[in-house]
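Reopening this one. Same input as before:
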Amino acid sequence: MPTTSQTSDSLFLTSAAEFSEQIRQSILDARRHIRILSHQLDPAIYDQPSIVEALSAFARQSREAKVKILVRDSDEIIERSHRLAALVRRLPTKLALRKLVLEPNNQSMAFALADTRTLVYQNEDGYYAGFANTNAAAQVKSLSEMFDDCWEKAQEEPRLRMLYI
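Same output, byte for byte:
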């Protein structure tokens, strides 16, 4: 039985399934931008067919649609054939994954941002405690600015490039 509770625009999340569902819904509702920050793209949340399908559909919906993913460690993502790694390889002009060089102040957090209002926030990456908020414009703006600063300094992951022979 889910232990999700809700207050106004916030939905408190306490399991990987709840995080995955809220991120999937955020992706489905988004129109232009998805930004994801995670240690290793937790497989229980992100390596799910529903997430990959939603991101694929989002990326193909318009020319403006962009997905940016920042990770702290890409080794496991590459080695275990993460579904999102395969999607990044297939749609490199729409989805990009980079490795963090500059760490944000709160190094334990993980989040997904959709456009300018929706936030799914994990208090500590790897633990399932956090919230989703569809009306979090101020928080999304602040986290987007931090994300964009980190993105500019992040390293591309060459192992995600497709080799055409």
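So the earlier flakiness isn't reproducible anymore. For the record, The radius of gyration is 15 Å.
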